[in-house]
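User: I'm putting together notes for a lab meeting next week and I want to include a structural view of one of the chains we've been expressing. I don't have a solved structure, so I'd like a prediction I can at least talk through. The sequence is below, exactly as it appears in our construct file.
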Amino acid sequence: MNRRSSRDKDTERKEAFAVSPATSENIALHIVRHLVRGLGKAEGQGISMQSLRHWWTVSLGQRSDDFKLGLDYAATCHWIEHRPDNIIVLTGQGAEKGSATR
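Assistant: Thanks for the context. Below is the predicted structure for the 102-residue chain, given as structure tokens.
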């Protein structure tokens, strides 16, 4: 009988539900497009993290874990900046990315 430890099972579950890099990119693009097209934000303008998270989780009914992954991806790509006062600010690259058509 081959028994796996509970740690192995937990790791397996997390990997099964992990968001792929492509999905993280899609989430980041969705957030940036909302900032530009939905809210009319331009380079240097921002919104509170709380308001943006509310839009993602309540208005769209999405998971907050996915929101965090998307924000992290967008920050890594320099599309947004996360200020210490919990304001998400759109960068020049983010403004371009958010306004680009698919």
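A couple of points you could mention at the meeting. Confidence is low (pLDDT under 50) at residues 12-17. Residues 20 and 26 are 10 Å apart (CA to CA).

User: Perfect, that's what I needed.
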